[in-house]
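no rush on this but wanted to send it before i forget. theres a chain ive been looking at and ive put its sequence and its fold in token form underneath. please have a look and point out which stretches look like helix strand or loop to you. thanks a lot i owe you, the record is right below:
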Amino acid sequence: MGGGAGWDQGRGVVLVADAGLGTVNAVRLASAVVADHPLVVALNHFGDDPAQTRLHQRNLEHLTVVDRFEVVTSPAALAARLLAELARRA
């Protein structure tokens, strides 16, 4: 879902989604709207609540393995991903 095509034209999309319950459905629905654009999913509050760690991990696994989205789980990882894209274009 990530990749280079489109990012170089300023068309990449960052979709920020809560890491908890309902995430898979929300990401699927929202990603359909931007299907023509490269997409990075950022899971917000990933791992913040120890009681939901297993749910967060399962959502991450489903989004990456089953749905094949490119997913980051922290602001630092998102920044690194976007900086790598800028460096690739330079």
In short: The beta strands are 13-18, 39-44, 71-72. The two ends are 22 Å apart (CA to CA). The mean pLDDT is 90.
